[in-house]
Amino acid sequence: MQIRNMTYKQFFNLIIILIVLFLEPISSEAKEPITFGKGIWLNIWNYPANPDMFCEHLKSKGIDTIYLQISRSNTPAIKNPAGLNKVIKSAHERNIKVIGWTYSFLKDPLSDAQKFIQAVNYKTPDSDKLDGLAADIEEVTNSRSIETFAKAVRKSVGPKYPLIAITFSPVLKRADPRHYAWKTIANNFDIIAPMTYWHGFVKLRSEKGAYDYTAQTISKIKEYTQKEDVQIHLIGDGQKTSREEIIGFLKAASDNNINAGVSLYPWYTPKEHQVETLGKFDLSDN
């Protein structure tokens, strides 16, 4: 059909289609992963006694995400709903994301998937929800179990819901690709969040040690997944780590262009120097 023979309605519809086609790739490329930002991890044993105070402190230091454990395979899908409701309310009032995580044994991947789905759909009394959900994969790590779990979840939550896999650092022997299904994880999850815990190795307790361990973690994930553009969120070591170690960790993240954010898993609660050092990190350089 030639433009000069179009009716006004046909011409208007054509313009709308062209606008949509032009804008869609741009908005897709500009969208940041849900884990982009700076976060602190909490497990089911250390929910903050005063969520308002805790969230206010994180906000003041430049932290914008809380990673909150909500369950294990041997607990209900939401182990502490009252505590979760309070954290979500306090965090969202301060524009802080709350990403839940569950320790998924994957001995029964379909049961774990069902609990994961329940958590995705969970609503607080104020009809609020978690901003995302991650599965900690440490127990059963074979390809079949991981894929069964991930596909069952994906079928329920749809293609756009960001699935996050918490993994070992591939520097560890237990994460060798011969028995840790890196390719399967990369093919079924949107974001890989390696536990980058260097402090357990005495020789790495320095800025350089943390830097090297982090850089190796990033490099090996790309090698084992065979995806140079894989989205990686680095979980840094907060187990009594020093300011210098955290700086080394963050410098490695920056130098290697980490694309899905950084965070710290503290020893029970984060130390002030850890929160301050993380909060000062400039993600805009990545």
Describe the 3D structure:
With 286 residues, the chain is an alpha/beta fold. It has two domains: 1-31; 34-285, Glycosidases (TIM Barrel). Helices cover 43% and strands 16% of the residues. It has nine helices and eight strands. The protein has helices spanning 8-30, 51-60, 81-93, 109-121, 143-157, 182-188, 207-225, 243-255, 272-280, and strands at 38-42, 65-72, 97-103, 132-136, 163-168, 191-196, 234-238, 262-266. It has an eight-stranded parallel beta barrel with strand order 1-2-3-4-5-6-7-8, surrounded by six helices. Strand 7 (234-238), helix 8 (243-255) and strand 8 form a beta-alpha-beta unit. Helix 4 runs parallel beside helix 5 (143-157). It is globular. Residues 24-29 have low confidence and may be disordered.
Fraction in beta strands? 15-25%
Spans where pLDDT lies below 50 across 5 or more residues: 24-29
Averaged pLDDT: 92
CATH class annotation of the largest domain: Alpha Beta
Give the second-level CATH assignment, the architecture of the largest domain.
Alpha-Beta Barrel
Task: Identify the CATH homologous superfamily of the largest domain.
Answer: Glycosidases
Along the chain, the helix and strand elements come as HEHEHEHEHEHEHEHEH
Compute the number of strand runs. Answer: 8
Shape: globular
* Spatial extent as radius of gyration: 21 Å
Give a short account of the largest sheet. 8 strands, parallel, barrel
